[in-house]
Amino acid sequence: MLYFSPMTVFPKRLQKKLQDRAESNALRQLTKATSLIDFSSNDYLGFSKNKNLFHQAYQLLEKTNNKGNGATGSRLLTGNHELYAKAEEMIAAFHNAESALIFNSGYDANLGLFSSVLQKGDIILYDELIHASIRDGIQMSNAKGYKFRHNDLEDLQKKLKKHQRDTEIYVVTESVFSMDGDSPDLALISKLCQSHKAHLIVDEAHAVGIFGKEGRGLVQELNLEAEVFARINTFGKAIGCHGAAILGSEKLISYLVNYARSFIYTTGLPPHSLATIYSAYLQLRETTDIVQLKRNITYFKEAAKTLGICDIFIESTSAIQCCLISGNAAVKALAESLQQRGFDVKPILSPTVPKGKERLRFCLHSYNTPEEIMEVLQLLATFVKK
Fold it and tell me: Membrane spanning segments where (predicted)?
């Protein structure tokens, strides 16, 4: 029999917060994996299930005699096994960067970068739709942060002019935004930063593996590598595994090794994680999945136009296509209807997105068929036209 002492009574304020979430139809819950047709995962190229990649990683572990199940400690103590250097050298070369540093996750990378680099008196200007991990990193720093309107370069320029006399100015944006799937004009943002002597930081989480030659990202597609202070590339999306890397100068990487707390005070990734990352980058150079994914994105957009529902989608050329359905209850009901018919499409609720901008988020993959895309959009058209 379980016994709960009075000390385990759940705090009333926390209970109230949970009740508020439930009453607004916004209570998050973990769900089990399903066999539904995938229109929700970030596995854009199918790498997470790629058998060839799995075997390549295993062979690399065998070749390098890495049979450990864990890193045994932080990288500054005992966890810096040889596959780290091998993977970081490949990643830096692949992305035309001076140096690269692997973190345990994209969240850890953003926490470590922004909390350590931003100093007291510095200014950080960030897009209002920037990822939560970047916001958290900024909040942990001693810098002052100011948001600019989403992809609004005029608003960014005003704020750059306002703060141009401050010590250091940083600007951060995403090359593909996770909740809208759209992209900023990185070339113009880069020019603005140069003219105001600001440091540009770009999160490429949803661009790597999709944009640029062999999926090298939007920064490289635009030849902006030398103009970007830091890039954050995560491996949990198109790369199909786990972890992240910050790309930048050797001085930046040295600084992060010394001051990024989310790097210093955590156990390193195990050898098999690094072997998978390394093998995934080899796979990027050989795969035809990127071409197929782009075909599917084009087909999805054309099908939505044919069915007369393109106006309810946010404009995007990425693998993320979002259909605006206002209200948590309405978008949850619509998602459930699609799921009952075999399609795994997830609702994005407020407060994750602003109230009134709730949406269905379609994540497209190289392995989605034209038939699946057309059927799910036909169902959506039927529901929204009722």
Answer: none
Nearest residue to 244 via CA among 266, 199, 277: 277
Q: Are strands 230-234 and 244-248 parallel, antiparallel or unpaired?
A: antiparallel
Surface-to-core class of residue 123, CB atoms within 10 Å of its CB (0-12 exposed, 13-18 middle, 19+ buried): buried
Query: In order of start, what are the domains of the chain with their CATH numbers?
Result: 34-49+288-384 (3.90.1150.10), 64-286 (3.40.640.10)
Task: Tell me the C-alpha distance between 346 and 336, whole Å.
Answer: 8
Query: pLDDT tier at 2 (50, 70, 90 boundaries)?
Result: low
Give the C-alpha separation, 368 to 346, whole Å: 16
* Nearest 10 degrees: Cα torsion 306, 311, 317, 323: -100
Residues 332 and 347 sit within 8 Å (Cβ to Cβ): yes
Q: Which of 199, 178, 177, 185 is nearest to 153 (CA)?
A: 185
Predicted confidence (pLDDT) at residue 252 exceeds the cutoff of 60: yes
Q: What is the mean pLDDT of the chain?
A: 95
Own/partner pairs for 347-350, CB < 8 Å, 24+ apart? 348/179, 348/322, 349/25, 349/26, 350/24, 350/26
Could you give the CA distance from residue 17 to residue 12 in angstroms, rounded to a whole number?
9
pTM above 0.90, yes or no: yes
From residue 343, give the alpha-carbon distance in Å to each of 30, 36, 139.
18, 5, 38
Distance CA 276, CA 280 (A): 6
What is the number of other CB atoms lying within 10 angstroms of the CB of residue 250?
A: 11
Determine the average pLDDT of the residues in 291-319: 97
Beta bridge partners of 313: 323
Cβ atoms within 10 Å of 88's Cβ, excluding its own: 21
Distances from the Cα of 377 to the Cαs of 211, 347, 383, in angstroms?
25, 15, 10
Q: What is the DSSP letter of 153?
A: H
Task: Give me the amino acid identity at 236.
Answer: G
Q: In Å, what is the CA distance from 282 to each residue of 60, 66, 105, 169, 345?
A: 12, 19, 20, 36, 30
